C-alpha cells in the first residue's frame, strides 16, 4: 500500500455484497451477450427461444450491464463514503442490494415478456418502471440515514466534506425521479439530423458527466499527494469551462457536419493529459496499479476514438454499423469496467485480490481490445457495403466467430471474479458466525 | 485393500442397479405398455392392468423389509430377479386382460421385492466408492435404454432382453457379506427429515412421469426429443454424465442440493414442454434432471439415510419406493393422461416442497433482505396501480398496436427507422423524413444498429403479404436472412397488427422516390464484372422461392398473392419492355430486381451490390431467352449485350 493511502484492510460485508451483486449481473450480461452473438451466427437456433426472442434478450443484456454491473459498484462506493457499511446501519446494506437486484430481475422479466418503453437504456415500463426507482430510493434512504448518524457521531469531519455529502444526497435524490421521467416515451434528446444519433452537445453533456464522476471519485477513495495537488484545481476549472460551453451549445437538433459541433466536442481531448495527471495527484493502494493504468488507457482511447468517430465522413461511414458497437465497447467493457474494478480494488483493500490476478486481468482487457478491433473492422466493411451484414458471407461470419470467442473469454474472466467474490462473502459469513459463537460462549 | 478384497470391486452392485433400471425403464414402463396395446388391452382394461402393477409394487415394497427374517438378502434379490424375468417372458404370450392383470401384478411385485432388498443391502455389494458405483449403475442403465437400436427394437425384443438381463442378474448376486459400518459418504450437511425426503422424491417422480407420458403421447414433442439416432445418443450420454455428476454433487454438496438441482432442471423441462417449439431444449434438460435424482433415489436409502440397522433401512426404502416410486409415478401418468401438460402451478407446488429446506434456510438467515424486498415489491405494485401515468395507454388502432408489438419485440435493436439525408440510404431505403416528423413519434424508433435493413419506408418497398410470409419463415422468403421467425405472433392479433404498422410506414415523398428508382441503373463497370453463373446462384438464393414453379413461398402462399409471381422460365413478363429492346429490358430487370415493384408483392433486393444485381439480370435475361438451356448450363458471362 502506498504511504498515506486511505483504505480499510479488508472490505466490509456491505461492500463485498455490492461487488458480488454487480459481478452476478456482469456474468448474466456476458452470458446473454455470448448467446446473442451465437444467434447471429446460427439464426436457426432462435427457434429455441420461443417468444423470448433475440430483440427481447438484447434489452435484458443492455440494461443489466448498465443498471447491474455498471451501477452497483458505485452503490458500494456510496455505502462506504457515507459510512452506511459501518455501525448499526451496516446490516441494511445487504437488504437494499437485494432490493436493487430484485427490481432489476423484475425489469428483466418484463422485457422478456415484451414490455418496453422503446427507449434504449430506458426500457423501464409498467410495474418495473415504478419498482426500480423505489429500489434506488431505498438505497438513498440508507445513505441519508447514514449521513445523519455519522454527522451526529463524528465531530471531526470537515464542514466542506459534510456539505459535499449533503449536496451529493440532494443530487442522488433526483436519480429515481429522473429515471422514471426519462423512461417516458414522450421525451427524446436532441437528434443529429444527418445521422439520427445524438448531437455533439448531447455527447459533450454525457461525457462531462463521466468526467465529473472521474474527478469526484478520488475524494471518496483516498487522499491527495501534497507534491502534486496543484493539478486538481486546474482539472475542475477545465470541467467548469467545458460545462459552460455545453450550456452555450444548447439542445437544438444540429448536424455533426457543423464545425462548431465537432470542434466543441474536441475540447474533451484536454482530458487526455489532464486525467492521468489528476489521478497521479492522489495516493492509491499498490494493488490498484494495473486496473488504474488500464482505466486511464481505456479513457484515453475512448476520448480520442470518440472524437474521431464523430468527425464528418467517419461518422457517416460508421453510423448504424458494428463500428459504433465497438465504440460502445470501448466505453462500457473497456473504460467503465476498468474504472469500476479499480474503485472496488481500492475500496476492498486486501479483498481486492479477487480482481488483481494477472490472467483474468489480461484475459479481460485483451479480449475487449480484440472485440473492439473486430467490430471496428466489421463496421468499416459494413459502412462500405450494407450487404456485409444483411447477406452474411464468409468474412462477416469469420469476424463474428472471433467476436463470439472474445465474448466467451470475457465471460470466463467475469466468472472467475464472481467465484472469487463468492468466496470472499463466504469467508466473511464464516467469520461473522464465528464471532457470534464466541460472543455467545 | 482389506475391504475391497472382502466386498469385491463392487461391480456386482453396479450391475444389479443397472439391470434393475433397464428392466424398469425399457420393459415395465415402456415395452409392456406397447405389448398390451398390441394385444388389444386398452382403455379401462389397461388402467386395471396398470393398477395391478402399482398394487404389486406398493405391496411388495412395503412387505419386502418383513421378509428379512425368512431368507438371506442374496436369496431375496434372486427371487425378485426371477419373478421379474418370469413376468417379462410371460408377457410374450398372447395374454388376455386377466392374464395381463396377473403378469402386471408379477412385474410390480418382482420390482418391489427387488428394489427394496437391493438398496437395503447394496452397501455390502458395492465395494469401495459405493456412491460412484450407484451412479455408474444408474447411468449405465439409462445409457443402455437409449442406445438407438435397442430403443427402437420391438416390445418383444425388449421383453426378452429384460428377462435375460434379470436371469443374468441371478447369477451375479454375490454372497452375503458382513454388514459394513456406516461411513461418511456425502458432504456433511444438515440432514433432511425422512418425510421431507419422501415428499421431495415423490414430487420429482411425479414431474418425471408426467413429462415422460406427455412426450410419449404427443407426436410433436416426441419428434423433438426421442427420435433420430443422434438424438438418442445425446440422451444416452447426457444420462450417463448427469448420473456421474449426481454422485459427485452428493459427495460435495449433499442430498438437498442434488434434489434442488434436479427439480430446477426438470421444472424447466416441464415448462418448456408446454410449447412444442421448445421440445429441443426440453429434451436436453429432461435426461439431466432425471439422472440427477435417479442416482439419489438409489443412493439415499442404501447409503445416505441415517438408519441404525438394515431393517430400518429396508423400512425407509419401502416407504420411499411405495409412495415416491409407485404412487407418485401413477399420479404423474394420470396428470399426463388427463391434462396433457404439467400445469405451472403444480411445478410451483413441487418447487415449494423440494426447495423448502433452502427456502426455510433463506427465511431464517436473510429475514431482513426478504422483508425489505417484499415490502418494496408490494409498495411498488400499489404505487403502480395508483399511478395512471405508469400504465401504457391502450392502443386503439391496428397500426398503433403494431407499433407496440415492434417495441415489445425489440425490433429497434436490429432495424433503424432513419434514412440519412444525402447518403446512399436514400436510394436504398427510401426518402429521408424531416426531424420534426421523426420527433412526432413517441418515442422515435430511430435505433442504433442495423443487422437488417432500415424500415422507415418499408411500407413502400414491401407488401403486407411479403411481410407476413417473412415473419413466418424469414429464410424461406429471403435465403440470406438472419432474422428469427415470428410466426408465434400470428397465433393472435399481434402478427396482423405488426404487419399493419410496417405497411403504414411510408412518407409523403414515396412517389418521388419511386421515380428515382426508375431512373437508376447499375454502374457501367458492374456489367463488365457481372456473370450469369453468379446470377444463377443468386437466383437460387433469393428468387427461386417465388419464381420457380415449385418454389416454397410460391406454393405456401399461392392463394394470397395479388397476382401469382410469374414462373420466370415461362413468363408472362408483364413489367418488361418487349424482347427486341434488349438493353432496356436488361436495365428494367435490374431495376425490378433491386427495388421490386411497388404496389405488387414483388420485393426489392436493395442491399445487393451493383455487380450482383447485374449478374442476376444477365441470368434472368438468359433464362427468358433460352429457358431450357439456361436451366442446365449458364453460359452467358461478361459484357452487357
Give structural notes.
The complex is a heterodimer of chains A (441) and B (641). With 441 residues, chain A is an all-alpha fold. Chain A folds into two domains: 1-191, Cytochrome c oxidase-like, subunit I domain (Cytochrome C Oxidase, Chain A), CATH 1.20.210.10; 196-441, no CATH class. Helices cover 73% and strands 0% of the residues of chain A. Chain A is built from 17 helices and no strands. In chain A, helix 2 packs antiparallel against helix 4. Residues 1-8 of chain A have low confidence and may be disordered. Chain B is an all-alpha fold and 641 residues long. Chain B folds into four domains: 1-177, MFS general substrate transporter like domains (Growth Hormone, Chain: A), CATH 1.20.1250.20; 191-354, Growth Hormone, Chain: A; 398-512, Cytochrome Bc1 Complex, Chain D, domain 2 (Orthogonal Bundle), CATH 1.10.760.10; 520-637, Cytochrome Bc1 Complex, Chain D, domain 2 (Orthogonal Bundle). Chain B is built from 31 helices and no strands. Chain B has helices spanning 2-7, 11-38, 43-63, 73-90, 97-121, 130-146, 148-151, 155-172, 194-217, 219-225, 229-252, 255-272, 279-304, 310-339, 344-354, 356-365, 367-386, 398-408, 424-429, 435-439, 458-461, 464-472, 474-477, 494-503, 510-518, 524-529, 532-547, 552-556, 582-595, 610-625, 627-632. Chain B is elongated, with a radius of gyration of 34 Å. In chain B, 51% of the residues are buried. The model of chain B is unreliable at 1-6 and 629-641 (pLDDT under 50). The chains are: A mainly alpha (441), B mainly alpha (641). The interface between A and B is large, with 69 and 69 residues.
